[in-house]
Amino acid sequence: MPTLDLLTSIALGVGLAAAVGLRVFLPLLVLSIAGYTGTVPLSESFQWLATLPAVAMLAVAAVVEIAAYYVPGVDNLLDTIATPTALVAGTIAAAAVMTDLPPIVKWTTAVIAGGGAAGLTQGVTSLLRLKSTATTGGFGNPVVATGELGGAATLSLLAIFAPIVALVLVVLLVWLAVKGLRRLFARRAPAGGDGATPVLPPDA
């Protein structure tokens, strides 16, 4: 496989995997449609994704998932389920588009890059939802859900039609997320005794 094609397939896989961390089934639905229409070639073992039954099944799952994240309380519960699911789905999405690679290389890259990207985006959005729940009583959660939905759709489409752009966007989002989380935990960190009142020994 030429170097450019290899980079493109990895970028496509990472972009889809990162989108899976935002919504599990929507990126898989986009990938399934792309495979069904012949827009994106799939690995031989993932040809089932390019079938009409797979498109229909993923469409139903995507609609149910999207709707469920707008139900108070259910969204936080879904995060606990979505985290391990996103790791698996992100790995599958990445492996499905990495064609013409030796199995050991494909699966190693899919697990590390695909699963890692999905897990990171899922973890960040879960923390954002927990913070929204704590600060707004859950009333701000639909805003978070809408942002996740828009991000998943945008990343999925970019991964299909402009994979290198999607990869650059994922790297930028990861950098911003890490920077934001560091600021968040820095605010929560205790003073470490710098501002504590010293304890004086009793008078001899």
What would you say this structure looks like, in words?
- It is a single chain.
- The chain has 204 residues and is mainly alpha-helical.
- It has one domain (3-162).
- Helix content is 75%, strand content 0%.
- It has 7 helices and no strands.
- The chain has helices spanning 3-20, 25-36, 52-68, 74-97, 103-136, 141-161, 163-188.
- Helix 1 (3-20) crosses helix 2 (25-36).
- The longest helix is centred in the middle third of the chain and has 34 residues, at 103-136.
- It is globular and about 50 Å long.
- The termini are far apart.
Distance between the termini: 82 Å
Strand fraction band?
A: under 5%
Q: Helical proportion?
A: over 70%
Low-pLDDT residue intervals, each spanning 5 or more residues = none
Structural class label? mainly alpha
Structure at a glance:
By secondary structure, the protein is an all-alpha fold.
What are the key terms here?
single chain, mainly alpha, 0% strand
